[in-house]
């Protein structure tokens, strides 16, 4: 598995979808999986720690693209 991090500028934030993985830092921890999007806010889940979080999508600057062979 390979992960590439893509910068989330304002235009790219509009393309974030449920199931995507986002982070404040590229490759940083924690990473959050998007479980719901509403009015510029994201409902997020930390898959490793099991913690849920709600935050403005603008708080996250990176989106992971996961490549699986």
Please give the structural blueprint:
Elements (H helix, E strand, L loop, with lengths): L1 E6 L2 H4 L7 E3 L8 E7 L2 E5 L6 E5 L5 E6 L2
Antiparallel strand pairs: 1-6, 2-3, 2-6, 3-4, 4-5
Query: Could you tell me how far the N terminus lies from the C terminus, measured between alpha carbons in angstroms?
Result: 7 Å
Q: List unreliable stretches of 5+ residues.
A: none
Radius of gyration: 11 Å
Provide the structure class. Answer: mainly beta
Number of domains: 1
In percent terms, what proportion of residues is strand?
over 45%
| CATH fold name | SH3 type barrels
Mind describing the biggest β-sheet?
A: 6 strands, antiparallel
Named CATH architecture: Roll
Q: Please give the number of β-strands.
A: 6
Task: Please tell me what the overall shape is.
Answer: globular
Considering DSSP H and I runs of 4 or more, what fraction of the residues is helical?
under 10%
CATH class equals Mainly Beta
Q: Count of helices?
A: 1
Order of helices and strands: EHEEEEE
Mean residue pLDDT: 85
Strand order of the largest sheet: 1-6-2-3-4-5
């Amino acid at each position: 598995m390979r992960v590439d991090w893509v910068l989330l500028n304002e235009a790219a934030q509009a393309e974030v979808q449920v199931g995507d993985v986002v982070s404040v830092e590229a490759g940083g921890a924690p990473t959050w999986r998007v479980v719901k999007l509403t009015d510029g806010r994201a409902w997020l889940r930390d898959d490793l720690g099991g913690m849920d979080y709600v935050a403005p999508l603008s708080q996250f600057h990176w989106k992971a693209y996961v490549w699986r062979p």
